[in-house]
Design a protein that fits this description.
alpha+beta, Beta-Lactamase, 3 domains, 5-stranded antiparallel sheet, 16 strands, about 50% helix, elongated
C-alpha cells in the first residue's frame, strides 16, 4: 500500500481510485474489513481507524480497529457495543464530524483503558438505504481538525466499501449455496446408494450394519448405535454398536418406550439432539465423556405404521449438527425403518406360507393317503372274513388291496418328489434335469421326455442353472399332484443372451383365475427363483388343454 504524509486532494483521489479497485477484487469479508479500515487510515492521514459491521438486525456484529496495539486491545474491558457516537452513527444516514470528543455530550460508552482521542470523523456505510456498517477515523497525525475535504474522501471510500461489502456478501452466499447444493447432492447420492442396497437386503442384520457404517463414514461420526423393538414388546434393545474408542453411548442397553432419550424418540417418533454436559452425564456411558463427545442425536426408525427402533449417533466436532444434517439422518432412519418393516413383512409372509403349506399337506395326507390306507385296511378285513367261506372272492379283495397299496405308494412318492430338497451336486444342468424327469417317470408312470443342448450348458453360471433346476422340480411336482397328465415334455434351448426352458403337460389344466388354488405357492416360488437371477416366468393353462410353463434366465457369466 502506498505511504503518504500530506498529499494534494488530486493525489488522494488517485489513491482512492487504486483503493476502490483493490476493494472490488476482494471477496473475503474478513480481509475486506481490514483493508477498508487500513485504507481509511491512510487516506485520512490519521492515527486511528476502525470499521464496524452491522448484523441483519442492525446490531454491531464485528469491529476491526487500526492503530491500536494488541496490548491496548487486551487491556480494554470490552469491545465497542454501539453506544454514544458509534450508536448514533449506526442509526443515521449522515456523517458525524467531531473536533473535540471530550466536550461532545454523545461521547459515552468508551471501554476502560481506551486510548484518549481528540477528534473523530464517522461515516455510515450504506447500500439500498440501509446501513451495512460504520467507518471511523480519529486524530489526524498533524493534529489538525477534520475538514470538508477529509469528509468527502472518507464518504467516497465508504461508498466503494458498500459496493465491495455487498459483492463480498453476495459471493459468500453463492459459495455457501454452492456448498449446500454439493452437500445435498452428496446426501442424495448416499441415499440413492443406500436405498438400492437396502431394497435388495433381506436380513435385518445386514440392513442395520450397511446403513450405520455408510452413514458414519459419510458424516465422519465418532460412534453410532441401533436399538430395535421386537414385535409386540415395549422395550428397545441395543443390537449394533459402532465406534472404536467409545465403548457405548449409554450405560443401559435396554430402554422402555417413553423412558430416556431412546425411549422418548421411539414414543414421539421425533428426532432428539442432546448437547453433552460433562457435569451431567448420569445416563451416558463414561467413554462418551472420556472421548469428548459434543453431541448425541437419536432418530426414529419409522415404518409405515409405527416406530421399529432408534438410530443414535455421536458427534465429536464442536460444530453442531445443522438442520440439514438432522433432516438427512432422519431420512436415513426412515429408509432403515421401511426396509426393516419390509423384512418383517416378508418373514411373516414366509412363516404364514409355511403354515399354510403344512396345513395343506396335512389335509392332503388325511383326506388322501391316510383315507386310502384306511380303505385298504377295511378291504383286507373283509378278505379275512371271506377267506373260509369264499376263497375266490377273498382273493379278489386281496388283489384289490394290493392295487390300492400300489396307488398309495405312488401317492407317497409324489409327495416325496415335492418335498425332498434337491441340488445339482456335480452335474451340469441337463444332467440334473434328466434325473428329475427320470424320477418323475418312475414315480408317476406317465410318459416324460426331455430335450436340450448337447453340451449340457456347462458354461451356464451355477446360480442360474440351479434356479432352472428348482423351477423344473417344482413344475414336475405340481404336475404329479394336480394335472393327472399322461405326457410331459421338458424342452431347453438357448438364444444369444438367454437360456429358456419350457415344461408342458397334457393334463386337466385349470382356469388362470384359479392359479393360486391350483398351484398353491408353487407359482410364486418359481417366479421368485427366476427373477432373483435376472429372469422371469410365464404360465398358461386352460381346462382340458394342459399347462405350459415358460421360463428364462440371462446367459451371462457371474462376476
Amino acid at each position: 500500500m502506498i505511504k503518504v504524509s500530506r498529499t494534494s486532494f488530486n493525489e488522494k483521489m488517485a489513491l482512492l481510485h487504486q483503493a476502490s479497485i483493490q476493494l472490488i477484487q476482494d471477496t473475503s469479508i474478513e480481509s475486506l474489513m481490514e483493508r477498508i479500515a487500513a485504507q481509511a487510515c491512510q487516506l485520512g492521514e490519521v492515527k486511528y481507524a476502525a470499521l464496524g459491521m452491522l448484523s441483519e438486525t442492525g446490531r454491531l456484529e464485528r469491529f476491526i480497529p487500526i492503530g491500536l496495539t494488541a496490548e491496548q486491545i487486551a487491556n480494554m474491558d470490552h469491545q465497542p457495543v454501539g453506544m454514544g457516537l458509534i450508536g448514533e452513527l449506526m442509526c443515521c444516514s449522515e456523517s458525524i464530524r467531531v473536533n473535540d470528543i471530550a466536550r461532545d455530550p454523545r461521547s459515552i460508552g468508551f471501554p476502560s483503558n481506551h486510548p484518549k482521542m481528540r477528534s473523530m470523523l464517522g461515516v455510515p456505510i450504506r447500500h439500498d438505504n440501509r446501513n451495512l456498517g460504520i467507518l471511523l477515523i480519529a486524530d489526524k497525525k498533524d493534529g489538525t481538525d477534520f475538514t470538508e475535504e477529509d469528509q468527502r474522501l472518507i464518504e467516497m471510500l465508504a461508498s466503494y466499501a458498500a459496493i465491495a461489502i455487498t459483492n463480498a456478501r453476495l459471493y459468500d452466499r453463492l459459495v455457501k449455496r454452492d456448498q449446500d447444493i454439493t452437500h445435498r447432492n452428496e446426501n442424495l447420492a448416499l441415499l440413492n446408494n443406500m436405498a438400492s442396497t437396502l431394497a435388495t437386503s433381506t436380513e435385518i442384520d445386514a440392513i442395520i450394519k450397511i446403513a450405520l457404517t455408510q452413514l458414519m463414514d459419510f458424516l465422519d461420526l465418532k460412534a453410532g448405535e441401533v436399538y430395535l423393538r421386537p414385535e409386540g414388546e415395549k422395550k428397545l434393545k441395543l443390537v449394533l454398536h459402532r465406534g472404536k474408542t467409545v465403548t457405548n453411548l449409554w450405560k443401559e442397553e435396554t430402554f422402555t418406550v417413553g423412558r430416556g432419550m431412546i425411549g422418548m424418540t421411539a414414543k414421539t417418533g421425533l428426532p432428539k439432539v442432546l448437547t453433552v454436559n460433562p457435569n451431567d452425564g448420569s445416563e451416558l456411558h463414561e467413554s462418551v465423556l472420556e472421548n469428548g463427545i459434543h453431541q448425541i442425536a437419536s432418530f426414529p426408525l419409522r415404518g409405515r405404521s409405527n416406530v421399529l427402533g432408534v438410530l443414535c449417533v455421536a458427534v465429536l466436532d464442536r460444530r453442531p449438527l445443522t438442520d440439514l444434517d438432522v433432516q438427512f439422518i432422519g431420512a436415513i432412519g426412515s429408509w432403515m425403518g421401511t426396509a426393516l418393516e419390509n423384512v418383517r413383512y416378508n418373514n411373516n409372509s414366509r412363516r404364514l406360507a409355511v403354515l399354510e403349506e403344512r396345513e395343506r399337506i396335512g389335509m392332503d395326507l388325511h383326506d388322501g393317503i391316510i383315507q386310502s390306507i384306511y380303505a385298504v385296511g377295511l378291504t383286507l378285513e373283509h378278505a379275512r372274513l371271506l377267506l373260509s367261506e369264499n376263497p375266490e372272492q377273498s382273493k379278489e379283495r386281496i388283489d384289490q388291496s394290493i392295487k390300492g397299496l400300489n396307488n398309495t405308494i405312488r401317492d407317497i412318492r409324489t409327495y416325496i418328489l415335492d418335498l425332498r430338497p434337491r441340488q445339482l451336486s456335480d452335474e451340469n444342468l441337463m444332467q440334473g434335469l434328466n434325473r428329475l424327469v427320470n424320477e418323475f417317470r418312475a414315480n408317476t408312470l406317465a410318459e416324460a421326455h426331455i430335450n436340450g443342448p448337447a453340451d449340457g450348458l456347462e458354461k451356464l453360471p451355477a446360480s442360474k442353472a440351479l434356479a432352472l433346476f428348482h423351477i423344473c422340480q417344482e413344475a414336475l411336482a405340481n404336475t404329479a399332484k394336480h394335472a393327472k397328465a399322461k405326457k410331459v415334455e421338458v424342452i431347453v434351448w438357448t438364444t444369444g443372451d438367454r437360456v429358456l426352458m419350457e415344461i408342458r403337460d397334457n393334463g386337466k389344466g385349470f382356469e388362470m383365475e384359479n392359479t393360486r388354488s391350483s398351484l398353491g405357492h408353487g407359482l410364486s416360488n418359481m417366479q421368485t427363483r427366476a427373477r432373483n437371477v435376472g429372469g422371469d416366468l410365464e404360465l398358461t393353462s386352460e381346462p382340458g388343454s394342459g399347462t405350459t410353463i415358460l421360463t428364462w434366465v440371462p446367459f451371462t457369466s457371474e462376476e
